[in-house]
Design brief:
The protein is an all-alpha fold. 75% of the residues lie in helices and 0% in strands.
């Protein structure tokens, strides 16, 4: 369920910042882990975009 709420198709620094705020919030452990993993994937995608330029 938590993977369904993470905006995977949206790759931007704004999404990373929102995920950072969500991870800092009082979330249940599994939700925090899912958001953290989604944030990491978004950061990897941003780095890949830099290489592709």
């Amino acid at each position: 369920m938590t993977e369904a709420i993470y905006p995977h198709p949206m790759i931007s620094e704004d999404v990373v910042a929102a995920a950072d705020r969500a991870v800092e919030a009082d979330l249940p452990g599994i939700a925090k882990r899912s958001v953290s993993e989604g944030r990491d994937a978004t950061q990897r995608a941003l780095r890949a975009r830099l290489v592709d330029r």
